[in-house]
Amino acid sequence: MLKLLPGPVHRMALRVAHSVRLRWWRLTGKVVRGCNVIAANHAGQIVLVRHSYHLNGLWMLPGGGLDKGEDLLDAARRELAEEVGCALASPCHITTMTFDWNTWTNVIELVAGMTSDAPKPDGREIAASGFFDPRALPDPTSKPAQAMIARWLDHQNGNSA
């Protein structure tokens, strides 16, 4: 439905909705569960995104909330496809990471897989995207993304491909 709105209006709606959502989470001490995706190409580079509506100067991993009853790997595939148009092959759950933001908690399921697609930002939720070397991340990359990528690299035993 939101795709019917002109891009600038859609981006403004995302900013307002996200601001309201953050306030609600802070007021209620909400525990939010979502997923982040590390999608690597055959060269070992990973997809990073910059959002249009929140912390838009930071590079982050693609991802988002889990729908009620949604399978984790299906959610990871959905989020990657929605945000940058990439298919996620061979997804696997790496770990669960918890980020305490003082008044609310974000529980992130980290999923990794492969993609042979070139990331293309949707121009609405995602302002920019690209492949990056996981050992030479662009500046600035969010601290949570850095922590998740480090955990993934450890899981890979130093081999990101």
What descriptors fit this protein?
161 residues, alpha+beta, 4-stranded mixed beta sheet, two-stranded antiparallel sheet, 3 helices, 30% helix, globular
Structure description:
The strands form 2 sheets. This protein has a 4-stranded mixed sheet, with helices on both faces. The protein has helices at 7-28, 72-84, 143-155; strands spanning 31-40, 46-51, 63-65, 89-100, 105-114, 126-132. 27% of the residues are buried. It starts with 6 loop residues before the first helix and ends in a 6-residue tail after the last helix. The chain is α+β, with helices and mostly antiparallel strands. 30% of the residues lie in helices and 30% in strands. It is built from 3 helices and 6 strands.
Task: Give the secondary structure arrangement, pairings included.
Layout: H1 7-28, E1 31-40, E2 46-51, E3 63-65, H2 72-84, E4 89-100, E5 105-114, E6 126-132, H3 143-155
Parallel strand pairs: 1-5
Antiparallel strand pairs: 1-3, 2-6, 4-5
Write a brief structural summary.
The protein has helices at 7-28, 72-84, 143-155; strands spanning 31-40, 46-51, 63-65, 89-100, 105-114, 126-132. It is of the alpha+beta class and 161 residues long.
What spatial order of strands do you see in the largest sheet? 3-1-5-4
Number of strands: 6
What is the makeup of the main sheet? 4 strands, mixed
Poorly predicted runs? none
Helix content: 25-40%
Q: Structural class, judged by helices and strands? A: alpha+beta
Overall 3D form: globular
Count every helix, treating DSSP H or I runs of 4 or more residues as helices. Answer: 3
- End-to-end separation: 37 Å
